[in-house]
Write a structure and sequence with these properties.
This protein is α+β, with helices and mostly antiparallel strands and 93 residues long. Helices cover 39% and strands 35% of the residues. It starts with a strand and ends with a helix.
């Protein structure tokens, strides 16, 4: 499977980083139909691909294994995740 693996550093703490990640997840839901749920400090992505968004005190990491039908869109998915992460973590500084 084609993989997307993007990590960003931050100094926001877990709670603030999770709060800021939520609009990014909402954006991915509307753009790509992403669904999943928070399990502690990890958002587990279940549809249309498998993956996760992991939040620590200093990083946010998005890992997604793209299924066959989304592989041609890997560049688009990576660009959207990069843009959304940058906006989410830079907001309200």
């Amino acid at each position: 499977m084609a993989s997307v693996d993007i990590t960003r550093q931050h100094d926001l703490g877990v709670a603030e980083a999770k709060q800021r990640a939520q609009p990014m997840l909402d954006d991915l839901k509307s753009s790509f139909g992403v669904s999943g749920a928070w399990e502690g400090d990890q958002f587990v992505i279940t549809q249309p691909a498998k993956g996760s968004l992991d939040v620590t005190d200093t990083t946010v990491r998005v890992q997604v294994d793209l299924p066959l039908f989304l592989r041609p869109m890997k560049g688009v998915v990576e660009a959207k995740v990069n843009e959304s992460l940058d906006e989410a973590l830079a907001a309200q500084r």
